Structures are given as C-alpha cells and as structure tokens.
Amino acid sequence: MNALEVRDLGRSFGGLQALQNVTLSIAQGERRVIIGTNGAGKTTLFNLLNGQIRPTRGEIVLFGEPITALSTPQRAARGLARTFQITSLFAELSVRENIQIAVQALDPCRFSFVRTIESYRHIEQRVEELLAQWQLEHCAAQRVNKLSYGVQRQLEVVMALASRPRVLLLDEPMAGLSSEETHLVTDIILALDRAVTVVMIEHDLAAAFRVADRVSAMDQGQVVAEGPPALIRDDEALQRIYLRGGALGTAGPAVSAGGRSQ
Amino acid sequence: MNPHLEATGTRVRRPLWTDRSRTIRLLAAVAGIVLVVLAASTLGSYPVELITQVLIYALFAMSLDLLVGYTGLPSLGHSAYFGVAAYAAALCSLKLGLPFWCAAPVGLLAAVVTALLFNLIALRTARGYYLMITLALAQVLWSIAVSWTDLTGGDNGLSGIARPVIGRPLEGAASYLWFVALVFTVSAMAMWRIVRSPFGQALKGIRENEPRMRALGYETWRYKLVASLLAALFAGIAGECFLYLNGFVGPSSLAVALSAQVLLMVLMGAAGTLFGSMIGAAVFVVLQNIVSSYTDRWLFVMGAIYVLFALYAPAGALPWLRERWARYRNSVGGNT
Predict the structure, then answer these.
(1) How confident is the model at residue B314 (pLDDT cuts 50, 70, 90)?
(2) Which domains does chain B have, with CATH numbers?
(3) What mean pLDDT is reported for chain A?
(4) Among chain A residues, CA nearest to B201
(5) Best mutation site among A62, A70, A113, A122 for testing chain B: the one with the most B CBs within 10 Å?
(6) b or e along B247-274 (b: 16 or more beta carbons within 10 Å of the residue's beta carbon)?
(7) Which structural domain range is residue A240 located in?
(8) How far is CA A106 from CA A75, B119, B211, B215, in A?
(9) Which CATH number covers residue A34?
(10) Residue A44 lies in a domain
(11) Is B4 a residue whose pLDDT tops 80?
(12) What interface predicted TM-score (ipTM) does this complex get?
C-alpha cells in the first residue's frame, strides 16, 4: 500500500487551471522531492493535499483511505503534517510555546482545561526532546518574532514533526537558510525514521537531490517528469529550464517512472 | 524516545519556571485580595462598595479577556451574558420565588445557553464580523428587555431582589464584599487554570494563527465555542454579583455601552493577561468614581484619559508599568 496516492487531481481558480491531471504514487517511507519553476503549481498541490483548498476534480488517498472530502484537521489526525512556504508560526509566543502547541495537537489532553500544561509530563518531555534535537534550547524562551529567519524556518519543520506524522509535506524548508542551516535541516531530514514518508518542495537542487529517492518535476500545473535523482539531474530538458528559466513543458519530452515517456 | 528521530542522549530538563513559584505567586495574590478587603472593611461603606464594584468588573473584564485577549475574538456583545444571567436570576427570585441556590445556577445556565445560540451564528463569520454580529445580537436582547415590560419591567427593570443568605444574610456592605471577594478569587483561579492549560495554549494559537492551528489538527471552531461558553459563564457570575449588590437589574446591564466599557477595561489593562484586565477594571472603576465626584462632565475627562492611554500605553497599563519598573531597576542597578 502506498503512503499517498494522488489520482487525476485538478484545481482551477476561475478561468485559471492551476493544477491539472496530477497523478502521483508515493511509497511508504519514500523521500519524494517536487521541483519546478515558480507558478508551476507545487504549493497548490500541497494546499490540496492538506485540505486547505478543495480540488475541482480527482482523488487523494492516504494509506488506502480516501481523504479528499476530509477537513484539514481530520487529515492531520490521520498523520498528514505540513510546513508552509511563507513562515507560519505563532509570532507572539515563545519557541517553547510554539512547540508545546504542536506537540499537544493530536494528544488526548489538548482539550483539557482543568490541569496546567506543565502537569502533562509527557508533553513537556517531548518538547524538551525536540528543543534539544534541533538545537533550539538557547532560544526556547524567546518570542518567535524576535528570531532570525533561519531559526524560524527550522521551527516550522520542528512543529510539523512534533505530532509524529506518517506523511510530512515540507514546502521549501531550505528557503532563506544559510548554507550551515541548510546542511543542518538536510541532515535532520535524512535522519528521519523511514516510518515517515516525506514529500518536499525544494528549489535548492543540491539539497533536493541529496534527500530525494525520487523527483517529480512540475510545470504549468502538471507533473511533466518523474524519476530517480540521477536521471532527473541529467535530464537535458530540466537543465534547460533551470538555466534559462523557461517552461519545462515546452523544453522537451517528459520523463516518467525512471525513464523518458511521451 | 522519539521514534522518528535518532536519540540525542540529551537529559530532559525542567523549565526554569516551576509549579512551586506559581503557587507562591498565587497565594500572594490571594493574600493581597484578603488584605485589600480587610483594609476596605475598616474604612466605611463607600470604599467597601467601590472595592466590591472593582472586583465585579474585574471578573467581568477577565471573562471578556478569555475571548478578546486569549482567543482573538473581539466581542461587543459581552454585556448580553452579564445581563441575561442577572435577569434570569432576578426573574427566578421574583416570579417563581426560587431561593438563591436555585436562581443563581439558572441565571448562569441562561448566560451559557445565550452564548451557545450567539456563537453558533457569530462563529460562522470572520473576526471583524464577529464584533458586529455579537453587537447586533446583544442589541436584540437589550430591545427585548426594554420592550417586554410585563416580564422585564421595561426601562424600570426588576428590583427588590434580596441578597443571598449564606449562614447569615449578606445584607451589610462588608459581608457582601467578603462574598464577592470569595467568588472573585475562585473564578479568577479557575480562569488562571484555563489559560495555563493545554486548552488555553490552543486558544493562544488560534489567536495568533488559526490556519496553522487547523493544519496541526485542531478543530478550531470547537475551541472558540467552548471559550465563548466559559467566558459567558464567568460574565454571568459577574452579572449575578452585580444583581445582588444593587438588588436591581435594568436594561443598562444589557446595553452596548456596558460591552464597550468592559472592552475598554480589557484594552486599558492589557489584553491577553488576566491580571492586566483586573488592573484595567480597577483603573476604570476608580477613575470613574473619582472623576464623577468632582465634575458633571466626567465623561469628557474619561474620554481624554482613554486618549492618553491609547497614545502613551497602547499595549495597556500592565506592560507600561512593567516597562517603567524594568527601567527603574536598571537605573538603580547602574548606579550601584
């Protein structure tokens, strides 16, 4: 059973077809990277996957269960977590509080208003664990809007991981990071247990190819190429796109499942 | 151990702030209230009535802060819960002859049911519209109170409601102050628990970034609904304390002016801190009493004071005081 299946997914905004006929099969534990130029439909695809917007056609299946009709929180409860392209945190709260909120999100205690948060030892323990693992202990008490952009991007990823997701959608996790921070985030993604399936949008191709088991290239709302990193890296059409900033769809024939197709 | 990440071998550390230090601060706050009440009791009826009013409005402001400061729901209809609880308890006493122990819970239930009905409508809207919808719904209740004269007494309201008997009648101003201080302390501690709980953390998350909360898995409307019901419950408690203080309830307890006043108290103190709302209510009630004793144009003076607050302490009195205190400590530290 695949972790995530996307079948013939489409979404239009008025007359604009933002996404059309997108079909993906992502195996359990796979690291899938989605690349493409700006406006290719990558973030729209993520918004459809986590239920932020509804598709105009097609189906999404998570571990064999159709989730197209489910709300965003219902999808999160089934183990689908995501980060955002534009940093989306709780700006006025501390780093610790941000992580606390993410950790308790799917815990039975989240609706309790009788006991204080500190009395839930397992929540506190998990918060401390994440702070230590992501080297955020030094800024745990700082308000998020006082942090550097790089640390905020890291915190995005920590929060998505906090509730132990089964499928993790990372929307440009390296965007705006220094090379050192990019290295740290890449290492952490590589160190993730294979129980977590990772789907990542990334413009930093070096980092993307380092992480990916397979790469899907998107252009003008469609998946136009798919295959292992080595094959995608050597693809002439893809090279032309990234060198010229042109459209992948017009650059040449697509690649599919390990080789070229029509 | 985290099943998704490699073990770090890092020992789990406890946060610097501990339950013990919180308990000490809480006990200090309770002791402070007891001292204020004791001091007021020795000073005659005017200070006693003033402190009673401060505590009632502080409770009312703190209940609104659960919505405005913690959940990010700006309400201009909070007087509805205050007034409905008071009217319902008064009607139970006057029309049905029910004792305090029956009338008071019925009043609180009425406030919570009103909040449920209001919020099933209002929570369908975005935040700016929430303000308008709550204002409109509260105005409906106010117009009912004014026009349904047979039931509510119209503009004359309902009077002659006796104070509760707890062991002995709470007829004296001082004994009623002790009763209100007890109710205030228990309610404030309950609200403190709520905002420090996982539920309270979720409310803060909703205030800051609701789409992110949904992405994390929170059904945010449930949290907002429950927060509204809890806020209505505590506003209802304040409303009933006010009812038994005056032995009277009228349409002014449901009026938009009261909702605006309590919103000002929250903003003057510092939205998002229960203690700040308490400070805001105290400043508001005391200033209003002092200014109105000197001039008939007290509304003009109060307006000028609000403008000064907006200009010089836009985040509220509590952050302003904290900043001044920090500067003072730094200057003292620098001189030594």
Answers:
(1) confident
(2) 19-297 (1.10.3470)
(3) 86
(4) A101
(5) A113
(6) ebbbbebbbbebbebbbbbbbbbbbbbb
(7) 4-88+166-260
(8) 11, 25, 16, 11
(9) 3.40.50.300
(10) yes
(11) no
(12) 0.85
